[in-house]
Structures are given as structure tokens and as C-alpha cells.
Amino acid sequence: MPMPTFKTSFKKTALALATSVTASLAFASAQAAEVEVLHWWTSGGEARAANVLKELMEAEGYGWEDFAVAGGGGETAMTVLKSRAMSGNPPSAAQIKGPEIQEWGELGLLGELDEVAAAEGWDELLPGTVAEVMRHDGQYVAVPVNVHRVNWLWANPEVLEAAGVEMPTTLDELFAAGEAIREAGFIPLAHGGQAWQDATVFESVLLATGGTAFYQQALVDLDPEALGGEQMVEALTTFKRLRELMDDDMSGRDWNIATSMVIEGSAGMQLMGDWAKGEFTAAGLTAGEDYLCAAAPGTQDAFTFNIDSLAMFRVEGEEREAQHALARLVLEPTFQEAFNLAKGSIPARPDLDMSEFDSCARQSLDDFQRTAEEGGLVPSMAHGMAVRADVQGAIFDVVTNYFNSRDMAAEEAARRMVNAAQAAL
Questions:
Q1: Number of C-alpha atoms within 13 angstroms, CB side, residue 206?
Q2: SS3 of 275, please?
Q3: How far is CA 227 from CA 188, 239, 255, in A?
Q4: Which own/partner pairs from 224-233 qualify as long-range (CB within 8 Å, at least 24 positions apart)?
């Protein structure tokens, strides 16, 4: 066999190089058409709901790289996101909520979605309260996935029947029902001893004892007089009493494990947002029959909202195309219905047919619209909708330390609440 000439070798090398470059470009193009989505939808019902969006993206020819970070009600995910963003490598989209959307927008890291919003008519589709949260400097930078109601009470009807009690509608009724449930041999109130879960229960108690105006003053406006006054002391005292209805093994328990205690019948009730309904649904249970739902006792005229959303980071080229497809699909009826049926929440757009949704979801949508008109709609502090993350963290510390302290007085906790908010601000 003759030795190849230099010209032949060069041609082969050039051809190999061209083939390699073409393959690399094709690979890069394929990669660019993929979205990486950071979220904390990791429990059974949540993971099933998130997978719906992945399947819709893949059906349109886009790749989906799932970046699920479990734990902490999103705290761990935010820590990971900040690390990625600081290194200049943020994901295409991330589950970010409330004031944190504005913080990321101020850093100049979010990409605008006005082109998608205009084409899809988001201004007409979304309630004003929801749309406002999704914008930064007047431009859409995030898309709402759903609307959660936080102030819910869930119950096992068989446990209530065994204890001879009905669903409580006031805090006094809650304590009375709890005593009867304990005497019947069950845990009255399932709870997980984590700071965000403590804060979730606390804000519902504060709403019940002080009403929406006081809630707004204390947990949204951070008014020092509200944070340190008599109404706050009353709310903290009542909140601490709820420990009597919980079991001793609650420390560190995840929320969905607490929900499973209600599902299995070892506990009677749980105060938790409507993502808990996703766990009941995943277990094959029927609302109104196998489990009961009602507004947290004393909060029937209020709706504490938590809006899950995907904020979009600045990307270019085909990745931006894929990102815009993601934003469009999130608000389309197919995903809104499938996701919220699995997740336990209600659609972000109220124009959808709710006939496939259960009685709890229909009640939630009715209450959302009613409280929006009557002034009872308030953002959840515990779930990142009311204040910045640093302020929220400071309040969390006070609430959970007080809840787990044997000797801290409510008055001292109220003073610490004022100091924590002022220091954070």
C-alpha cells in the first residue's frame, strides 16, 4: 500500500476537523434547545406534577434537564441557585417567588418575556394580583404556575368520627377537637418541626386572631407597633398552645410525612397549604369523602396566597427559543389543568373549566376571587410572598425559637420580632 501524500493527509485531517466541528455545532445546537429547570417539586404529588411540563416540552422537540433540589421549602434550592448564579452559570429557569423575583431582576440576571406575554394575551388571562408579581420594571420576567392557598386545615374524617367531633371552624373549636382526638388515641395535629412549617402555622394563627388588616401591618408592612403589640402577643400565645396538640417526634419531619400521618389515620388534622392535597390525590383519595378540607379555623374570610412561578434567566439563541416555549406552555390549559390537578393548587388563570377539579379546589378558586374583591387576599410571609428572604429568615428564627423554647415569654418573642425586622431592614 502506497504511503499517503501530504496533500492527501491534509485533506483527511481537514475533513475530520470539519466533521468534528459540524458535530460539535450540531451538539451545541441540540444542547441550546434544552432548558435546565431548577425547582423543589420533589414529593410524590409534586414530582408527578412537574413531570407534566417536562413531557409537554419534549413533545415539542425541546430537551428538559431536571434540576430538582429537595428540602427546606425551597431554602436549599435557593442556596444552590445563588451559587450557580455567582459562578455565572444559572439555569434557564428557576422556581422563584414573590419579592425574590424583584431581587433577581434588580441584579439584571432575568430575561424578559413580553414577546410571549403579548402573543399569548397574559394581561387578559391573569388576575392583576398575579400579573403584578410576575413583572419587574413593568416587564414580564416570570410565568405563574399556579396559586396556592396556605391557610388550609386538612382532616381524616374517620379520626374525627372516632373522636366524636366535626371539622373545627374557630381556634377554640380546634383546641376542643384536638383534646377529643387525643383522648380517642390519635395525634390531634400532624406537624413537622421545621422553621418554615412553624411559620406556616404561625401566620394562620395570626390571621385568625388579628384579621387581614393586622396581618398586613405585621407581616407585610413590618409595622413595629403591630409586630410588638398586644395582638402579636395574643397570636404568639395561641400559636404556642398548639404544641399541646402535636406529637413529640415532630422535630425535622418533612411536611409530606406529616400529611401521610393524616392519610394513614395516625393523626387527625394538619395545618398546611393546599400542596398537601397533592399527597391525598397521589394516594388515590377523594376530597369530601376520604379527607376533608376547610379554611384554617378563624380565617374563612381570608386567603393567604403563595404563587409558584418560573423566573427566566438571561439566555441567548436557541436556548432562548426553548425558554420562551417553556413560558408559553406553562400558561396553556393543558399544563395548567394537569399540573394543578396533581399539585393540589388552582390554576393561575381563572378562565379554565374547573369541572375536573375536586370540591377543595373549586372552593379555593371561589374564595380566591371573593377575597380579592373583599380585601381578604394576603401574601404568605412563610412562603416568600410578603417580604424579602433576609427579613423572612429573621422572622423564621424568632418564631421557631419561641415555639421550641420552654421559657421564652410571648412578650419577649414579640420584642425579638421587632428587632429582627428592623435589623433585617
A1: 32
A2: coil
A3: 29, 15, 27
A4: 224/418, 224/421, 224/422, 227/414, 227/417, 227/418, 227/421, 228/414, 228/415, 228/417, 228/418, 229/414, 232/206, 232/414, 232/417, 233/410, 233/411, 233/414
What digits encode the pLDDT tens for the residues 27-83? 444 444 899 999 998 887 788 888 989 999 999 999 999 999 987 568 889 899 999
**CA–CA dist 213, 376 (Å, integer):** 9
In this prediction the pTM is 0.83
Cα-based torsion angle of the residue sequence 98, 103, 109, 113 in order, rounded to the nearest 10 degrees:
40
**What are the residues facing 139 on neighbouring strands?**
136
Which residues, 6 or more positions from 207, have their beta carbon under 8 angstroms from its beta carbon?
151, 215, 296, 298, 299, 302, 304, 378
Within its chain, how far is the Cα of 320 from the centroid? 25
Round to whole Å and give the CA distance between 352 and 54: 21
Please tell me the predicted confidence (pLDDT) of residue 72: 59
CB-based contacts of 114, cutoff 8 Å, min separation 6: 139, 140
Integer-rounded Cα radius of gyration of the chain: 25
CA distance 147 to 149: 7
Pairing of the two strands 139-140 and 135-136? antiparallel
The answer to whether 350 and 386 are in contact (CB under 8 A) is no
Residue entry with cell 418573642 = 413
At residue 162, what is the residue type?
A: A
Distance (Å, whole) CA 396 – CA 379: 16
Burial 117-146 (b: 16+ CB within 10 A, else e): beebebeebbbeebbebbbbeeebbbbbbb
Please choose, from the candidates 402, 92, 26, 383, the residue with its C-alpha nearest in 3D space to the C-alpha of residue 242: 402
Mean pLDDT over 258-283 rounds to 95
Confidence of residue 216 (pLDDT cuts 50, 70, 90): very high
- Residues 22 and 179: their CA atoms lie apart, in Å, by 72
Helices (H) and strands (E) in the chain, counts: 19, 14
* Contact between 394 and 219 (Cβ < 8 Å): no
Task: Provide the pLDDT confidence category of residue 21 given band limits of 50, 70 and 90.
Answer: very low
Q: Please, which residues bridge with residue 306 across strands?
A: 148
Q: Which helix (H) or strand (E) holds 27?
A: helix 6-32
Residue 264 has pLDDT above 60, yes or no: yes
